[in-house]
Write a structure and sequence with these properties.
This protein has 1 helix and 7 strands; from the N terminus they run βββββββα. The chain is α+β, with helices and mostly antiparallel strands and 93 residues long. The longest helix has 14 residues. It is globular.
């Protein structure tokens, strides 16, 4: 029996709510954003990067890397997108 390949990263676009998402490098970013959530080699934490959609520059979401329960990267990423939509200076953890 073959196991399906594991997915180690997710990338999606989202429009940040009021107060946007907090980054380490430039503070709060707002507007249309691209979010990349990447599972690290330890399998228990994820690095989260954010950019203005269409830009070449990526920033680290504050609090990244963040703990992720084993096998829950997709759920973490969906939750993160929802929190960014709500805004409020969203952090990775």
């Amino acid at each position: 029996m073959n196991n399906p390949p594991s997915i180690n990263s997710y990338v999606d676009r989202v429009t940040a709510g009021p107060g946007g998402a907090m980054t380490d490098e430039v503070g709060v970013v707002t507007g249309d954003l691209t979010i990349a959530t990447i599972l690290l080699a330890d399998g228990h934490s994820a690095r989260v990067a954010v950019q203005h959609s269409g830009s070449d520059t990526w920033y680290t979401l504050a609090g990244s890397p963040a703990p992720v329960p084993a096998g829950q990267l997709a759920a973490y990423h969906r939750d993160l997108l929802g929190r960014i939509r709500r805004g409020g200076g969203t952090r990775a953890s």
